[in-house]
Each structure stands twice: as C-alpha cells, then as structure tokens.
Amino acid sequence: MSSRCRVCDGTVHEFFDFGRQPLSDAFVPPDADLDQEFFFRLATGVCETCGMVQLMEEVPRERMFHEEYPYHSSGSAFMRTHFEELARQLLKTELTGDDPFVVELGCNDGIMLKVIAEAGVRHLGVEPSGGVADLAATKGIKVRKSFFEEATAAEIHAEEGHADVIYAANTLCHIPYIGSILSGVTSLLAPTGVFVFEDPYLGDILERTSFDQIYDEHFFFFSARSVQAMAARHGLELVDVERLGVHGGEVRYTLAHAGQRTPTVEVAALLAEERERKIADLATLRSFGARVLAIRDDLTALLRRLRDEGKRVVGYGATAKSATVTNLCGIGPDLVSFVCDTTPAKQGRLTPGSHLPVRESAEFANPYPDYALLFAWNHAEEIMAKEKEFTESGGRWILYVPEVRIV
Ligand SMILES: [Zn+2]
User: Fold this and answer.
1) Residue 3 to residues 8, 52, 56, 146: CA-CA distances in angstroms?
2) Which end of the chain is less crowded, N or C, counting CB atoms within 10 A of the terminal residue's CB?
3) 9: CA distance to ligand 1 center in Å?
C-alpha cells in the first residue's frame, strides 16, 4: 500500500498495519451503543523522498480535539517541572529584547505559559480543545480557542506583531495539515525569532520498540532528517536539536529563518547518527514491525497464562497509548479486570475498543492485584515510587517496552 506524503507529496510506503483501532481518547460511557463506536485503520508508512514517517490514514481532527479532550499537561509533577524549566530558559535566552512576544500552539492547560505570564511577558496560547483552554484562562493566561493555521497566524500578527518565540509541545506531530502550520509560523515569526517544538522521536520509538507511541493523535514521527527537509520547504532551517527523556523519548527541535543562525554541532551529530542507523529505511522500519508482533504475542501469552493460573491483573493508567496496545493485542476484561486512572472524565467509562472498565486510582489498592500492567510506562519511575506498597506486599509490574517482562 502507498499514499502521498503530507509534507512533500512524495510516495509513502506502508511498513506496519496495527489493524482496526478506535480513537485513543474516545472512552465509552457504560450505557453507550457499542455499534456506534468509531474505528479506523491505523497503519504507518515512510516517505521515500523526505523520510517522514506518518500515518497512512487521517482521522478528522474535530473527532479528536474537542470540548472534552481529557489530557491535562499539568497532571504529572515531572512534566510540570519540565515545562517550567523550558519557560525559564526561554525567558533568559530568547526573550530579553524590548517587549517580547511568545505564542504557544496547543497550550493545553497553560503549564508553560503560566511562567511566561508571571514574568509579565506578552503571550498568547492557541488551543482548539475548549475544556483545557478554559483551564489555561483561569490561570491568567491569554488564550485563543482555535486551531492554528495560516489565516490564524495572519490575525495574530495583525493584533500583536511578530512573535519572538513560537513554541509547541506534543502538538505539531498531531497535525496532518502541517504545511499550513509552518506557513503560518514563517509569517508570524520575527526575523531573529525561533520556532521551538518537541515531539516523540522516531529514533527512540525504533530503539525502544515503543509502538504504543503510534495512535490516532500522533500523525507524524519526526527525525532530524525529516524536520530539516520540512523546514527547508518553508524558508526555515533546523538550527538546534536536544534529546529529551520525557514521554518515552522526544527531541526538542529549534527552527529559525534560513541563514539567521548557525546550526549547532548537535544537529550534524544527530543527522549523522540517523544515517548510520538507517532509521528511515524500509528494511529498518519493517524489522521494527516484526518486533512489535513479537511483543504482541509475548504479552498475550503472558496474560492468558496468568488468567489460567487465577491471577488478577489490573491496568495502570488509561493512557492514549494503551488503546494501541489493548486493541492490537486483543486485551479485554477477561485478561485485565480494570484500568485505574486519576482522570475523573475517564472513570466509570470503558477504554476505547477494548472496553476495559476505568476506575479511580484508589481502587488499585482495594485490594492490590497480583500484577499491574503499566500502560503509563513513560512515568514508570514516578509511579513505582508512589506505589511502593504494592510491590512490598508482593505485587509485580508487567512492562512491555522494549520487551515483555515482569519486575
Ligand atoms: Zn515526504
């Protein structure tokens, strides 16, 4: 199967098919008509021209980012620190001029902009999901409830002038119409400004076989090579990269207007590493697919064995990522009794497609299960420290990235 690249119109060759998948945040009310549940074919491909890894099929965006969008950035103490540190760094290095202006695309509940606002710096968050946008506004952050594209950029420019920093975390990779975003960025960005964005890194996904980073909301899987090629199409240049440990491995990319800044040595180093690892080669990507199938078979076999031995297994964290795992592996309530999660909007509902009941966190200890399947593995350290009592009382964690194991 092939399709056209969303960035450069080159030929995209499919390398893995996850099959029929639901929307990762479409938690099902218990009384819902299950026949009405929306499914699509989740499959990944790579562009032979620019090396961009992307989904083969697009889900209409209004189905994904809406009033009830349940993900809150501030939910994790670790992530709060991550964004606050970035905000302080930007204040120190990029926002020292006269009356600087910061725009954040997909500002979520305002975790980063709060620090900018408190420093008295002019800012604007652009956020299409109404619920989290309202939450940001209550923190004293100026928010515009909309998607960001060329026309939006023109309006913001007319009202506020050029932006010295445009920032986006876990947003850009969500957006199939990325060309319009970059055109908007190019026109809104001050001549000496920077566009900084961070998203899951293809190199980490391949290295860790973290296939659950692949779900409806993640349309693109960036690498330095594909970002450099994409930037060049819009008169922008990749001038810095920084590997981040968050969300199972991300890269923070910095773009500037072409010729304005000298790229750092880290850019050349990451590009060289990617060439060496051949991360955009079909053969490399197909062998990733083979490892995903091995994890699926191992995890399914383990859960069936535990069920047959009468052990109780509970899921930990009804994450967006868990939709890919449960639906790819066919994990239903017969294998995992329920999933506990701290998000009230998910509690009392069923997980999308796999229909595992979601219960509040307190249920985890009531009583502790024999095994906990850790869907929120990117927060493993934070969670395992918090749930020390579980392991002390004999409970065990099941992890499945980069391979299935019990700890
Ligand atoms: Zn392409």
Assistant:
1) 12, 12, 7, 29
2) C
3) 6
